[in-house]
User: Which sequence fits this backbone?
């Protein structure tokens, strides 16, 4: 199935793009992250990231559906 | 209650007017300014980047939580995105309330939560030409041993 | 560190500029606004009167105490005197500091001390034509039994 | 001796003036207050007032000198 992935900040720089459409068998955000980490070589691990699915905070173990938009959220630094 | 982003300097006078209330006796505002150093490094300028669709929701949740927790009249928060220089205003929070205590408490609550929960990132550019994403670069430099003391 | 009086609307933009500092990351300001009611009475307007020569000294002492107690960069307080209408700004306090916690703490300390220690008086004019000096009229109406609950 | 007295707020209204020069034998601010209270009928008592001598907070029992300026300070209400 196709999943949309958006990248921000350090993740955007390391992925070399701000978004991509991924054709994947990943059932969960955790599976998807591991697949994309192997491709892009992210320096941050899952324990340092949060995940959002369709512009809302999600969990690493929730089930992904075709067309979902996923964001891996590095440590924030607002203000 | 509104959380918003600005890509140009924050118009604090307009934002303050939105908080005026004939029943409000106290108004507290916070501004985050770009400092010329951070964690011992000399900073020349900053860039802010936000995951806006989620950040706006999370920001609204923070303002709603402040209104539920403190008896305030009005609250607003505006965060800059894009390139900022030293002394520029990165974030503004304003709160009006009947008595001043609640305005202080709510304003502090809002900025503390915004800094911890809202998906916004800050890249610092240093005087030696280096740059780095705050809270990320050291984690990624030592992912197995990061102590988060920063 | 300066405490001052204004007989015309307080120029907060100019006051804020005096607090800018390339090493300051946080700025907190407080404004006291004239509310349309106080202690259950409907207020139409106010007058402030100060014993200026002593008030200026006491105000400076408060700002100096704040600077000694909290690691802040700069602090200012400006108080109106004369006639004010509802929503007018009666007092302004601004503090800049390296980190935001000190700016919040110092700003609150300053306004709390100003309200308790500086010889300034407020006369309220009510919608029924009455008027009264806040903190004085009830004391004087019942000098032997005043409970200071107001 | 002559003492200058300044009045503010409620005290000003009750004295009917913002200042006066008093020829008095009062040795202390307390004595001076009692003398002026008998003349002007202040509604606030000494326990509700503070006193300033020469633009500095003073005590009710300090010794007054000729030419001193005294202010009886009602409860304040800044902010």
Assistant:
């Amino acid at each position: 199935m196709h999943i949309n992935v958006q990248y921000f900040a350090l993740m955007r720089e390391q992925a070399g793009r701000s978004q991509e459409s991924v054709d994947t068998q990943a059932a969960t955000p955790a599976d998807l992250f591991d697949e994309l980490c192997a491709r892009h070589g992210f320096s941050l691990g899952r324990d340092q990231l949060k995940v959002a699915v369709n512009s809302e905070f999600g969990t690493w173990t929730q089930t992904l559906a075709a067309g979902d938009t996923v964001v891996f959220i590095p440590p924030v630094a607002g203000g | 209650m509104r959380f918003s982003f600005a890509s140009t300097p924050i118009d604090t006078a307009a934002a303050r007017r939105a908080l005026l209330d004939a029943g409000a006796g106290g108004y507290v505002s916070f501004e985050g300014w770009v400092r010329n150093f951070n964690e011992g490094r000399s900073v020349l300028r900053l860039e802010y980047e936000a995951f806006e669709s989620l950040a706006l929701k999370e920001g609204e949740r923070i303002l709603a939580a402040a209104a539920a927790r403190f008896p305030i009249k009005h609250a607003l928060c505006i965060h800059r995105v894009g390139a900022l220089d030293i002394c520029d205003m990165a974030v503004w929070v304003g709160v009006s309330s009947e008595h001043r205590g609640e305005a202080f408490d709510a304003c502090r609550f809002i900025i503390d939560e915004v800094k911890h929960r809202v998906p916004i990132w800050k890249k610092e550019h240093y005087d030696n030409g280096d740059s780095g994403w705050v809270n990320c670069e050291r984690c990624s430099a030592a992912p197995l041993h990061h102590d988060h003391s920063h």
The domain at 2-133 of chain B is CATH 3.90.1170.40 (Aldehyde Oxidoreductase; domain 3).
